[in-house]
């Protein structure tokens, strides 16, 4: 990869920090949501998570030993502003200051995510959180505070993580907070509020740090038409406009895809967009520095008859292969499993070439640099009696994805960084602690554990990848 390329790894505050009610932190929406029986695997919570709050020095030292060049992490809004606005929690500020300084001490570039799904519960109770336009100014105030606080220390910033996922699961499938089902009109209005929060934060950022780099991270699932039948090609177009370009076009162009917006207008669920909103979105789009991509899998688009499958179905959260159901929008598309590819135990398609596809499509469509802000394999890992973890399957997965990333770079894609998900094992939002992603095994399950850290085989493998700037991977 180019000499300026950053090899990294990633995490999220709720999934690793713990200390949920310590040091002045306020309650988040997730702190409340996990109290609802049946919402998470074996009622798992992030109250302790993997205790990164108290063990961050140990974790950063392991990153440094590996040679990690960038560490992407999120800041918990409620740890800075316990009520969402108003009084600042200085203990929270101090924690993130120390974490950033610890990274810088070892030459690790901090990459900060402003929002990784945990809004202060106080704002939900005050005005409905993301459902109210009031949230925009509170978010921008929070973001601006952090920009000023860490100016000169943090160069790379991500505004919103996977907006498409937290809004879909929160307002359409009830799997994430606020746990609403099929509230489609609110879903699109919530997304519009998030877009405005992103855009106004970008504008504020460029006033404070004109040389800094900022973008959003999108959970991108590129699509393939089922076959060459034009009816499936049209299904792919509809899928892309409603499930991919709806977000990326706003980030990069400051506007919604016209066909998709018209379709939603006909249904009566399109968001209300004022002329002032349009101006703000376009101004921010002209200033973003990169497109952040969380890549895990691709999708197949097949025509879905009007009496076909609906958008809601069983999602595999147990790791029992084959339990996920096909979903879609009647009259437009459905997303069957790709029969040409293998899947993980959670029914996620394994498609390394899809990462290259994603990079090439973004490069051609948006002409933006790319930050791969997440890519990784969730799997069942086993700690041996000799405290080893032999995760050859993870090495194979990551190696093949990096190989395709290198090809994308050779083919003209400007890729700034690659962050695996994740560095240590952590709490998977709906899947508990059994679904492991990290290079470092953390001894804990849904009941508890020692929280001791153990390096997996993949830890040593990625260390070599970084040392050789990817040359240890043979590109075929």
From TrEMBL:
Asked if the keyword Iron-sulfur belongs to this entry, the reply reads no
| GO terms, biological process | carbohydrate catabolic process
Respond yes or no to whether keyword Chaperone is given for this record. Answer: no
List the molecular function annotations (GO) for this entry: beta-glucosidase activity
Superkingdom of the source species: Bacteria
Which residues participate directly in catalysis? 374
- List the GO terms this entry assigns under cellular component, sorted alphabetically: cytosol
Record's keyword terms, sorted: Glycosidase, Hydrolase
Name assigned to this protein: Glycoside hydrolase family 1 protein
Organism lineage reads as: Bacteria, Bacillati, Bacillota, Bacilli, Lactobacillales
């Amino acid at each position: 990869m180019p000499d300026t390329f950053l090899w990294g790894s990633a995490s999220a505050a709720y999934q690793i920090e713990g200390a949920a009610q310590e040091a002045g932190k306020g309650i988040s929406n997730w702190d409340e949501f996990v109290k609802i029986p049946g919402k998470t695997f074996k009622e798992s919570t992030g109250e302790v998570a993997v205790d990164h709050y108290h063990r961050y020095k140990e974790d950063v030292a392991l990153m440094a030993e590996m040679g990690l060049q960038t560490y992407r992490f999120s800041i918990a809004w409620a740890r800075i502003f316990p009520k969402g606005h108003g009084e600042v929690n200085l203990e929270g500020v101090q924690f993130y200051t120390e974490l950033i300084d610890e990274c810088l001490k070892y030459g690790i570039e901090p990459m900060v995510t402003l929002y990784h799904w945990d809004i202060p519960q106080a704002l939900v109770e005050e005005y409905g959180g993301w459902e109210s336009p009031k949230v925009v100014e509170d978010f921008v105030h929070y973001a601006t505070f952090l920009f000023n606080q860490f100016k000169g220390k943090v160069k790379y910033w991500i505004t919103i993580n996977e907006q498409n996922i937290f809004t879909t699961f929160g307002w359409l499938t009830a799997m994430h907070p606020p746990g609403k089902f099929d509230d489609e009109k609110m879903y699109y209005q919530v997304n519009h509020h998030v877009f405005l929060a992103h855009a106004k934060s970008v504008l504020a950022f460029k006033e404070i740090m004109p040389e800094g780099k900022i973008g959003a991270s999108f959970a991108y699932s590129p699509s393939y038409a089922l076959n060459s039948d034009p009816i499936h090609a049209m299904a792919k177009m509809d899928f892309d406009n409603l499930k991919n370009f709806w977000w990326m076009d706003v980030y990069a162009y400051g506007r919604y895809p016209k066909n998709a917006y018209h379709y939603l207008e006909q249904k009566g669920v399109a968001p209300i967009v004022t002329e002032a909103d349009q101006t703000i979105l376009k101004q921010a789009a002209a200033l973003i520095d990169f497109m952040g991509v969380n890549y895990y899998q691709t999708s197949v688009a097949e025509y879905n008859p009007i009496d076909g499958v609906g958008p809601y179905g069983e999602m595999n959260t147990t790791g029992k292969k084959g339990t996920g159901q096909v979903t879609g929008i009647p009259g437009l598309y459905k997303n069957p499993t790709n029969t040409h590819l293998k899947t993980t135990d959670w029914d996620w398609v394994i498609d390394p070439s899809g990462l290259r596809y994603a990079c090439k499509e973004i490069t051609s469509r948006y002409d933006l640099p790319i930050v791969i802000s997440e890519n990784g394999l969730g799997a069942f890992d086993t700690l041996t009696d000799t405290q080893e973890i032999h995760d050859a399957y993870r090495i194979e997965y990551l190696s093949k994805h990096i190989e395709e990333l290198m090809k994308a770079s050779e083919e003209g894609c400007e890729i700034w960084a690659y962050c695996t998900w994740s560095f240590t094992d952590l709490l998977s939002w709906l899947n508990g602690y059994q679904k492991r992603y990290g290079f470092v095994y953390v001894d804990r399950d849904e009941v508890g554990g020692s929280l001791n850290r153990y390096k997996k085989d993949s830890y040593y493998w990625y260390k070599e990848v970084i040392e050789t700037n990817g040359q240890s991977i043979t590109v075929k």
